[in-house]
Design a protein that fits this description.
Elements: H1 5-11, H2 20-41, H3 43-46, E1 51-53, H4 56-64, E2 68-73, E3 77-83, E4 89-95, H5 102-108, E5 112-114, H6 123-153, E6 168-170, H7 184-198, H8 200-206, E7 213-217, H9 224-235, E8 239-243, H10 254-269, E9 272-277, H11 280-283, H12 295-310, E10 317-323, E11 341-344, H13 350-361, H14 372-378, H15 384-400, H16 408-420, H17 431-450, E12 457-461, E13 472-475, H18 486-507, H19 515-530, E14 544-546, E15 555-557, H20 561-588, H21 590-603, E16 605-607, H22 608-616
Parallel strand pairs: 1-4, 2-5, 7-10, 7-11, 8-9, 9-10
Antiparallel strand pairs: 2-3, 3-4, 6-8, 12-13, 12-16, 14-15
Helix pairs in contact: 2-6, 7-8, 7-9, 10-12, 13-14, 13-15, 15-16, 17-18, 17-21, 18-19, 18-20, 19-20
Bound molecules: adenosine-5'-diphosphate, magnesium ion (MG) and zinc ion.
């Protein structure tokens, strides 16, 4: 077990997770030891040779003994290398006597001779070669090593204790509440913080301390980050921000250091705003198992809690955090004195959407008669970010079309781009399939129009989208709706099944094109029973609980398997019933179904008005067309 590196590396933050400077220190220490050893043992042979002075007679004796290896004759002295007592090579010098015979004797003894003394290495050069060069070499090697380590881990490891997940500091965010459209409740709640930052004395006087932190809670793209910046902008205070997700990648201990760093900087600049985006990544509920190996996150969270408790709220450091999964936050974060104030930032309503479109519309050149209300009505459920995107897409489309101004049509088209995906250019749909799609869409529209509780049809198209949809029917409520009655829910299910019903009625065969409709119808029918208490069987009993309010709204069953079976039966019953209803509507309106489908097939896209015009028109030729679709 002990020898198995793999299993070990998973649990313990060993190996690459250990701070890089541990390796660096080890590297330099080993390098210096090696260098010293090298100098002590090896180098004396090459450079550092002390010169020993001997008499000329001694030199001659050594020459006779065959110990001399090489002789260098200078003007005043003679240097030579020879084997010394312990068998090693030593350097000697002696006076230079005019010995004419010397050259011959040396040649006879086969000793190297030169008339020039090799220049002795100066002490400075010696130091350079012996210490400085190797040291520089080791240092450069170390640098290379750091670079490779840090690019592999991702980040600049030279900043060691300093922040690595970037702390973004802005002295002026340049955003104000005017940049945030809608979200009036959130703005109202944040105005108090702005006021506090403006004149903290007012609060101190009365003895009131403002909450240290406020948590902005809401689905992605609703403007949480924007709101936090606007608070700083309104109060004219610096804005420090850091994103929770950046902590995840870091070395152990780095996250905590980072948090400390963040609060240190913030304290120096108080009053200011500290914004922690995506706080759920560090503030997740801690589970007791301890085997998750995520002690890094836990350390970071603990440090955050410590810092929040530690600093003086009256100094004017206000902490804002944002999350879209509040239910997964650690309870410790929500305790009084921490993020005890929770500010919901919801998806915009009709008025909000229109306001957001206006804010972003200011940035682009628009034609005079742009109707933002129509766009807002067609984008129920869109977030602020999506609406901003719609305006931008419209501008891009205008440029593509070679225009200098954004038109209503650009906006309408970009709604579809953002919501349904790009128009699939060049995708050729066989005529027969196109016909099926046309009948399918008209099926939806007809069922919707024939029922009293359905939203009016706004647009029908059979132009395929890159998202995979071959066509769709867009229904738009006349105003904003918050509640759905049981009748409306049932009518909606009937409308959803209308597409498939049309296929079956006209072509006597069914296709895969209805998969999304089926999914939606099933979901709605299920929710009616389990969450809205709309079935006679169960009444007002919550059979499901929503586990994630903002992301997808997944629900989990909270009932016995027996009940679950009954729910399934009930769902099937509801959808079947509505399907039959839809089929009957289509049978009753067969002439209109044919006429409208042929019209759509020809036009590919028709508006709600065109649809209603044909739908309400008295049509004398109705009966002749009844069976045409079957060909
Ligand atoms: P979040 O942080 O909630 O995910 P952001 O604040 O990052 O959302 O919003 C992304 C972008 O969407 C903003 O920069 C802004 O352009 C736009 N946006 C979102 N909500 C609004 C709003 N209420 N008013 C104006 N613009 C908005
Ligand atoms: Mg954000
Ligand atoms: Zn459909």
């Amino acid at each position: 077990m002990g020898g198995n590196d793999n299993s070990n590396g998973n649990k313990v933050p060993d190996g690459p997770k250990r701070p890089i400077f541990h390796y660096m220190i080890m590297f330099y220490v080993i390098g210096m030891i090696l260098l010293t050893l090298l100098n002590a043992i090896a180098l004396p042979f090459v450079v550092n040779r002390s010169v020993q002075e001997v008499s000329y007679n001694q030199f001659l004796t050594m020459l006779d003994e065959g110990k001399v290896k090489a002789v260098y004759r200078g003007d005043t002295e003679l240097q030579f290398t020879a084997e010394n007592e312990d068998g090693r090579e030593g350097l000697y010098k002696t006076g230079n006597f005019p010995d004419a015979d010397l050259v011959n004797r040396l040649a006879q003894a086969d000793v190297y001779f030169s008339e020039e003394i090799p220049t002795q290495v100066s002490p400075i050069a010696q130091f350079l070669v012996q210490w400085l060069l190797p040291f520089v070499f080791i240092f450069l090697l170390g640098q290379l090593f750091i670079k490779r380590m840090s690019t592999r881990i991702g980040g600049n490891a030279m900043t060691f204790g300093k922040s690595n997940a970037k702390i973004y500091a802005e002295n002026e965010t340049g955003k104000t509440f005017a940049d945030v459209a809608g979200e009036d409740e959130a703005k109202e709640a944040l105005k108090e913080i702005v006021d506090f930052l403006h004149n903290p004395e007012k609060y101190a006087e009365i003895g009131a301390t403002l909450p240290k932190g406020a948590l902005l809670v809401g689905p992605p793209g609703t403007g949480k980050t924007l709101l936090a910046k606007a608070v700083a902008g309104e109060a004219h205070v610096p804005f420090f921000s850091i994103s929770g997700s950046e902590f995840v990648e870091m070395f152990v201990g780095m996250g905590a250091a980072k948090v400390r760093d963040l609060f240190k900087q913030a304290n120096e600049k108080a009053p200011c705003i500290v914004f922690i985006d995506e706080i759920d990544t560090i503030g997740k509920k801690r589970d007791g198992s301890g085997m998750t190996g995520n002690d890094e996150r836990e350390q970071t969270l603990n440090q955050l809690l410590t810092e929040m408790d530690g600093f003086d709220g009256r100094k004017g450091v206000v902490i804002l955090a944002a999350t879209n999964r509040p239910e997964s936050l650690d309870q410790a974060l929500l305790r009084p004195g921490r993020f005890d104030r929770r500010i919901p930032v919801e998806l915009p309503d009709l008025r909000g959407r229109e306001a957001i479109l206006r804010v972003h519309g200011k940035a682009v050149k628009l034609e005079d008669k742009v109707d933002f209300n129509a766009i807002a009505r067609a984008t129920s459920g869109a977030s602020g970010a999506e609406l901003a995107n719609i305006v931008n897409e419209a501008a891009l489309r205008a440029v593509r079309m070679g225009r200098k101004i954004v038109s209503q049509q650009d906006l309408e088209e970009s709604v579809e781009v953002v919501i349904a995906g790009y128009q699939r250019k060049g995708a050729v749909i066989p005529e027969k399939e196109k016909r099926i799609v046309a009948y399918h869409e008209i099926g939806h529209a007809l069922v919707a129009a024939s029922q009293s509780h359905s939203a009016p049809v706004h647009k029908i198209t059979i132009i395929p989208r890159t998202s995979g949809a071959l066509g769709y029917t867009m229904q738009v409520e006349a105003g904003e709706k918050f509640l759905m009655s049981k009748e409306e829910a049932l009518d909606k299910i009937a409308t959803l099944t209308g597409g498939r019903a049309a296929e079956e009625f006209i072509f006597h065969s069914i296709t895969t094109g209805a998969s999304n409709d089926i999914e939606q119808a099933t979901k709605l029918a299920r929710a009616m029973i389990t969450r809205y208490g709309m079935s006679e069987q169960f009444g007002m009993v919550a059979l499901e609980t929503v586990t994630n309010q903002y992301l997808g709204g997944d629900a989990s069953l909270a009932c016995s398997p027996e009940t679950a079976r009954i729910i399934d039966e009930e769902v099937v019953r509801i959808v079947k019933e509505q399907y039959q209803k839809a089929l009957q509507i289509l049978k009753d309106n067969a002439a209109k179904l044919n006429e409208l489908s042929e019209y759509l097939l020809e036009k590919e896209t028709i508006t709600g008005e065109e649809f209603m015009e044909i739908y309400t028109r008295k049509n004398p030729t109705a009966d002749t067309k009844e069976t045409e679709g079957e060909s």
